[in-house]
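Hi support team,

I submitted a single chain yesterday and got back a structure, but I'm not sure I'm reading the token output correctly. Could someone confirm the output below corresponds to the sequence I sent? I've pasted both exactly as they appear in my results page.

Thanks,
R.
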Amino acid sequence: MNALIEQSSKTYHERMMKWIDISLEEGVRFFVTSLGNPRWVVERVEKLGGVVYHDVTERKWAMKGRDAGVHGLIAVNSEAGGHAGPRDPRRLYDEIADLGLPLVCAGGVSDAITFRAALDIGYAGVQMGTRLIATTECTAHHDYKQAIVAATANDIVLTERLTGVPVAVIRNEYVSRIGTKAGPIARWMLRGRKTKHWMRTIYALTSLRKLKHSLKTAGGRDDYWQAGRSVAAIDGVLPVAEVIRRMTSSGALPA
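Hi R., thanks for writing in. Yes, this is the structure output for that exact sequence:
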């Protein structure tokens, strides 16, 4: 389960606690947390033998995750889709490798070559988002999948207009129209200690509504598609089993 745990409101936090508990009741034992202190998730999950990995983009967040007791770190780098980090895969690894936790590379992996490159750096594994959206099992709209197949690395841009922080998306008509920089009022609110939570909530609700629309009815004027620079190596929509087969049967895995 992917749990966004930022405490933007008491109502949201209580809802997330409920979702975590329901997930545990249903047998989920692997959780990925982001945008908050994961200690309370760790405390809940560990009691039932579960594992928590935490999304990080730089050392200070990695240290907070470690101090909160997480079992591993998802190292979100500059190649990732969605909320990408500022560091490239190797620099991010070098920055947090000494913290004593398993590191998972998130961003830039979509084929055997990039998979092997991540393992050679020292990562324990990889997290693939963009590649697995362009699969037959994924419920994303056909237009979203085809946009990933058609895109090049140069088509991936960062926009602040969706959540208030840079999000990696495929450049299309809608993204070009709204621009990539937050407006002056939004920037002012995002700098405030209290107002930043209000602004992020506004962005999040608007972004979620548009993302749900794009997943189901892609192709309209107000659609955007999150994706990372790994689109460069994606040349078709494939079954998940075929994606894994290609990555593991071409010598990508260590002997």
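A quick pointer for reading it: The CA atoms of residues 108 and 212 lie 24 Å apart. Let us know if anything else looks off.

Best,
Support desk
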